[in-house]
Design brief:
The structure holds two protein chains of two kinds. Chain A is about 35% helix and about 25% strand. By secondary structure, chain A is α+β, with helices and mostly antiparallel strands. By secondary structure, chain B is an alpha/beta fold. Chain B has two domains: about 110 residues, NAD(P)-binding Rossmann-like Domain (Rossmann fold, 3-Layer(aba) Sandwich); about 150 residues, Succinyl-CoA synthetase domains (Rossmann fold). In chain B, strand 3 and strand 4 form a beta hairpin. At the A-B interface, strand 8, strand 9, helix 4, strand 11 and helix 9 of A face helix 4, helix 5 and helix 8 of B.
């Protein structure tokens, strides 16, 4: 689960990680009130969406007067912001963050993320703040300092020294401030079961202070049950409605651009099915993993969600039953044809646990649109043909 | 022969009397797995599925001599269960449970390594030595005895791959579902040398997915150390680039872990890479009939 910048900064504040002062607003009037409350002469109006690259997309702008804050808030609120991380459809801006202007002397990068190879969190820092960090990693990998922290010992002095000497911070007072900043960030990463934190840029001000000018945080979904405060920060409007509906039924759904709807058990086989369709000249319309607890109701729901997409010309049901019993899926397909208008051919491949029973159920039901397939290759080939209108 | 487990392996089940534990332990016993008991706190002294129940793993190990544990406890108790197994002298823990928090697994894995305990999973189908020992949730009947070793991140692709291998007239020595979570136990790099050393295994099927760099590491290892033919499939060639917030995850290992990257690395290591999982069986036939 991801949260907004303003929410990440609330967590930062709780742990004493310094940030500029700011207040979130839902309307231009609120934005104006916030600017008055913050005081000063310069404000930044920042679109709050779950994606990076907001500045380049026109979602972060500087205001030199309160009336400019109002103009910019009107402009940004309600706009559909397209960045390299939103996809071409962009994201609707429903909140803006009004932040006091900062005196920027230097821009750095600081992040914490799990290093899968080392199996521990790694703190990453760079002097190339404000830039696309992937570009830095590609062009100048030596400009990224990585310090892995073993949770068994926690953040130690030497971790901090590696960071500041690596970044070329020489002033002892600044060193102390930066180390304190990094150690607090590590602490909040661990205590909140974060998946990643990214601050880009982290700025140095004229007075030698370090501030988080931006803040992105993502969390381990498996650990949210023990963090109600984080769960409360969930912004449903940032999530895809169909994906969310699917998840309530234990289905994992992601919509794609193609014509062949897929219903598969297991994420790996679901991706493998999409790959096979593609390989045979077709295009997958979605990723759908029915999970290990699939029953008639969830299968029917899956059909409903797939068929909402008008581009779908055929559906390929590909199940290799382990825990999932094929007879249950077969019954689910029967249920679905009663509950939903299944307007396209459905190619069904059921293998594994109780597959013969399932074949019997489908044979006896004798539904016009249902085409049986013997294996993955056969099923994918039939689905590609059906989507092209061939028999 | 086989790797890691066989018909003599003594196995206990943590979370033995729960719904999932009961169902799958029963299936494993029916398959022929030597389940010698189980652990459920406060049910010690009882009998379940005809096997003794113990309060602690320590008691179970002392009484039964078990060396392997199959773990079915709920997600938030997984780390505790893994560490208990390690402390009690278990040598291999197979963690089936899905949804264990990553931070918990960091601690549990580090502790297991320190105690010399191997782990498989979490969030995986388990391990099976065909017609001898099933420790997990896979449909046992599709795994016929043969000469192909299988390592897979994905559960259902494990079944798909094994099924195709068997339909082509070959069979499986041991199949291991390693799971796809951020922190996992045994991976390709540790399992490949075991299959290389196993005289019964003549070819290896490796099924990977997008994300991370385990397959890239495996490719480097195969190039240097594996003489047996390897067939690989990487799932997710057509998966969309996720809508992401930051970039930190992608740059840790210096790459985004795309299918194309992994397939190229494996091909360069001399591996037979198939574009569709539907071709795994045929590819195995080809490399074994050479």
């Amino acid at each position: 689960m991801n949260i907004h910048e303003y929410q990440a900064k609330q967590i930062f504040a709780k742990y004493g990680v310094p940030t500029p002062r700011g207040i979130v607003a839902n309307t231009p009037a609120q934005a104006v009130a916030n600017a008055h409350e913050l005081g000063g002469k310069i404000w930044v109006v920042k679109a709050q969406i779950h994606a990076g690259g907001r500045g380049l997309g026109g979602g972060v702008k500087l205001a030199r007067s309160v009336s400019e804050v109002e103009t910019l808030a009107k402009e940004i609120l309600g706009m559909t912001l397209v960045t390299h991380q939103t996809g071409p459809e962009g994201k609707l801006v429903q909140k803006v963050y009004i932040e006091e202007g900062a005196d920027i002397v230097d821009e750095l990068y600081l992040g914490v993320v799990l290093d899968r190879a080392k199996e521990m969190p790694v703190i990453m820092a760079s002097t190339q703040g404000g830039m696309e960090i992937e570009t830095v990693a590609h062009d100048n990998p030596e400009k990224i300092i990585k310090v892995a922290v073993d949770p068994a010992i926690g953040f130690q002095g030497f971790h901090g020294r590696e960071l500041v000497f690596g970044l070329g911070i020489t002033d002892p007072i600044e060193q102390k401030k930066f180390i304190s900043f990094a150690s607090k960030l590590y602490k909040l990463y661990m205590e909140n079961d974060a998946e990643m934190i990214e601050i880009n840029p982290l700025i140095k001000t004229g007075s030698g202070d370090f501030l988080a000018l931006d803040g992105k945080m993502g969390f381990d979904d498996s650990a949210l049950a023990r963090h109600q405060d984080i769960e409360d920060m969930r912004d449903i409007s940032e999530e895809d409605a169909d994906e969310r509906e699917a998840s309530q039924y234990g289905l994992s759904y992601i919509s794609l651009d193609g014509e062949i709807g897929c219903m598969v058990n297991g994420a790996g086989l679901a991706m493998g099915t999409m790959d096979t369709i593609n390989y045979m000249g077709g295009t997958p319309a979605n990723f759908l993993d029915v999970g290990g607890k699939a029953n008639a109701e969830t299968v029917a729901k899956g059909f409903e969600i797939i068929l909402k997409n008008p581009k779908v010309k055929a559906i390929f049901v590909n199940i290799f039953g382990g825990i999932v019993r094929c007879d249950r899926i077969a019954n689910g397909i029967l249920e679905a044809t009663k509950m939903v208008d299944v307007r396209v051919p459905v190619i069904v491949r059921l293998d594994g646990t109780n597959a013969p029973e399932a074949a019997e159920i489908l044979k006896n039901a004798n539904i016009a649109n249902v085409i049986a397939a013997t294996d993955l290759a056969d099923g994918a080939a039939k689905a590609v043909k059906a989507a092209k209108g061939e028999k | 022969m086989s790797i890691l487990v066989n018909k003599d392996t003594k196995v206990i089940v943590q979370g033995f009397t729960g719904k999932e534990g009961t169902f799958h332990a029963e299936q494993c016993i029916a398959y022929g797995t030597n389940i010698v008991g189980g652990v459920t706190p406060n049910k010690g002294g009882q009998e379940h599925l005809g096997k003794p129940v113990f309060n602690t793993v320590k008691d179970a190990v002392i009484e039964t001599g078990a060396t392997v544990s199959m773990i079915f406890v709920p997600p938030v108790f997984v780390a505790d269960a893994v560490m208990e197994a390690a402390a009690a002298g278990i040598t291999l823990a197979v963690i089936i449970t899905e949804g264990a928090p990553v931070r918990d697994m960091q601690a549990a894995k580090a502790y297991a390594v320190k105690h010399g305990m191997m782990t498989i999973g979490p969030n995986c189908p388990g391990i099976i030595t065909a017609e001898e020992c099933k420790i997990g949730i896979m449909p046992g009947n599709i795994f016929k005895k043969g000469n192909v070793g299988l390592i897979s991140k994905s559960g259902t692709l494990t079944y798909e791959g094994a099924n195709q291998v068997c339909k082509e007239g070959f069979g499986i020595t041991t199949a291991v579902g390693i799971g796809g979570d951020p922190i996992i136990g045994l991976s390709y790099k540790q399992l490949l040398p075991m299959f290389e050393a196993d005289p019964e295994t003549h070819a290896i099927v490796m099924i990977g997915e997008i994300g991370g760099d385990l397959e890239i590491q495996a490719a480097a290892y195969i190039k240097e150390h594996i003489t047996k033919p390897v067939v690989a499939f990487i799932a997710g060639q057509t998966a969309p680039q996720g809508k992401r917030m930051g970039h930190a995850g992608a740059i840790v290992s210096g790459g985004a872990g795309t299918a194309a990257e992994k397939m190229a690395a494996l091909e360069a290591a001399g591996v037979t890479v198939v574009v569709s999982p539907a071709d795994i069986g045929k590819a195995v036939k080809k490399v074994l009939n050479k």
